Amino acid sequence: MSRFLPILYCCLGLTLLSASRPATPPQEVLVAAAADLKFAMDSLVKAFPTGNDISIKLVYGSSGNFYEQISNDAPFDIFFSADLGYPQKLEQQHKTLSPIKPYGTGQLVLWSKKLDPSKEGMNTLLLPSVTHIAIANPAHAPYGQRAEESLKHYQLYDKVREKLVIGENISQTAQFASTGAADVGIIALSLALSPQLQKEGKYWLIPSAAHQPLKQGFVLLQHAKGNEGAKKFAAFIESDRARAILKYFGFGE
Amino acid sequence: MTDWQPLWLSFRLASITTMLLLVISIPLAYWLAYSRRRGKAVIEALISLPMVLPPTVLGFYLLIALSPSHLVFTFTGLVIASLFYSLPFMVNPLLSGFKSLPPALREASYTLGKSSSTTLIKVLLPNIRPSLLTGIVLSFAHTIGEFGVVLMIGGNIPGRTRLASLAIYDEMESMNYAAASKYALILFTFSFSILMIVHLVNHHFSKPDPLS
After folding, report:
1. Rounded to whole angstroms, what are the CA distances from B113 to A54, B123, B200?
2. Can you name the residues that pair with A204 across neighbouring β-strands?
3. Which of A8, A102, A162, B171 is deepest in the core (most CB within 10 A)?
C-alpha cells in the first residue's frame, strides 16, 4: 500500500494542477437553443466568421426547459426560443440584455420512416398500422403545444390520444420517429429537412392554419454583459447570410 | 390535488419487477455460487454491468431492440428494462449470502439424503434470509428510482409509462413546484422508511448467529 500512496498523490496533484491552470481561452459564448434549431444552428456556427477567437458552445433542449433554467440564473449568454412567450417572461424578470429579436416562424410536419404521410395527410394518423405517434411534451415544448392544437383542429385528438408518446423535446420526438419506435412523429420542419432525416423518411407539411404560429425569437441574456463575442454572434444572426441559412431549414418570415 | 397514478405505476412496476427478479435470481445466484464452470466470471461481470453503465447505454440498446416488437412505449417494455436495470441488486446480495454459508451446511444436508432442490429450499434459503430481504428491498427501491431508461424508452404516457420519477421532472419543467415537491416528499419518505426497516430487521437477524 505504501508504494501506491506517492503515485496516488502525484496523480491527485496533477489533476488539481491541470484544473487550476490559468489559461487564456478563446472568448466563450454559451448558447441555449430550442431543439428544432439543432441542424440549422450547426450550420450557422460553421458560417460564423471566427477569425476573432470566439468559441460558440451550443446546448439544445426544449424552450420551456431553458426558460426554467435561465430564470434560475443558468449561465447562458443567448437564448433561442421556439416561442416568443418564454423570452418575454424573462424580459419581465429583467434577465435579458437586448430586445427580443424574431428570427423566423417554425412549421410542423408529419414525419414517418415507414409510411408516406403526403398520401393521406392528417388521416395518416388514423391508419391501423399506426400504433404510436410521437409528439413533443406540450407542458414545456412549444412544438408539442402546437402539435396538440393541430390534432384538436382536425378533431383527431380524442381518436389518437391513446397512441401518443411524449418526447422530452422536439429532437427526442424526431429520434422516436427516426428509429421507427414511433410510426409517425409530429416534428419540426427544420429537423425533417436535415440530411439525416431526409434520407430516412417522408414528411407532410401540416397547414399553418391548424395551429397558433410558432414565432421564434432570440435574446441576449444578462450573463452576456461585457461578452463581445455574444454580441457579434447576435449581430451575425441578423445578417443576410444567416437569414438564408435559416430559410433553407424551413424557418419562414 | 395529487395525481396518484404515477406513484401507483412506479409501485406496480417495482413490485412486478421484484417478483420476477426473485424467481430469476435465486437459481442464477445458486449457480454462480456453486458452479465450477469457467465462464462464470463473464456472467458475473455482465450481471453487474447495469450498476456502472450510464442508464443511457441500456436505454439506447433497449430502444433499438424493442422497436420492432412494439414493446417500446409500453408498460411491459418498462418491466423488461427494469429487469436488466435492477438485476445486480437482486443477484449480488443473494450471491454473497450463498457464499457466506459454510460448505458443511450443504454437505450435511446431502449426507442426510436430501436432494439439491430440497437443500436449496429447506436449508440454504432460510439461512440467507437477510440477503433475500436485502435483495428484495434493494431491487424494489432501485426500480422506483429509475429515471434515465424510462425517459428514453417510456414515451412518458400518462397512466401507462409516466412513473413518479418522470412526473416530478415534468412538474418541475412546467414550474409546478408545489406538485413536484409533493411527489418528491412522498418518494423521500417512502424510500427512507423502507431502507430503515431493512436495516432494523437485518440487525435483528444478525444478533443470534447460530453458525459461528
Report:
1. 79, 13, 37
2. A110
3. B171
Position A157: which residue type? Y
Q: Which domain holds residue A237?
A: 25-105+214-248
Whole-prediction pTM value?
Answer: 0.79
Compute the distance between CA of residue B136 and CA of residue B97 in angstroms, rounded to an integer. Answer: 13
Domain extents in chain B = 5-205
A175/A200 same-domain check: yes
Q: Which three cell numbers stand for residue A133?
A: 405517434
CB contact under 8 A, A181 and B173: no
In words, the CATH class of domain B5-205 is mainly alpha
Task: Give dist(CA B91, CA B131) in Å, integer.
Answer: 10
The complex scores an ipTM of 0.71
Mean pLDDT, to the nearest integer, of B33-40?
Answer: 89
Q: From CA A248, how far away is CA B9, in angstroms rounded?
A: 44
- Rounded Cα distance between B15 and B136, Å, is 9
Based on the domain organization, do A100 and A164 belong to the same domain?
A: no
Same domain? A160 vs A244 = no
Which residue matches cell numbers 427544420? Answer: A190
Model confidence at A20: pLDDT above 60: no
Which amino acid belongs to residue B100?
S
Same domain, A42 and A128: no
CATH of the domain at A74: 3.40.190.10
* Rounded CA separation A164/A181 (Å): 12
Q: How far separated are the first and last CA of chain A, in Å rounded?
A: 68
What pLDDT digit, counting tens, does each position of A80-120 carry? Answer: 999 999 999 999 999 999 999 999 999 999 999 999 999 99
Vertex A70 angle, CA A68 and A73, to 5°: 120
Out of A68, A137, A182, name the one closest to residue B175 (CB): A68
- Per CB-CB distance under 8 Å, the chain B contacts of A176 are 155
Is A174 in the B-facing interface, judged by CB distances under 8 Å?
Answer: no
How crowded is residue A24: how many other Cβ atoms within 10 Å of its Cβ? 6
Contacts with A65 from chain B: Cβ below 8 Å: 173
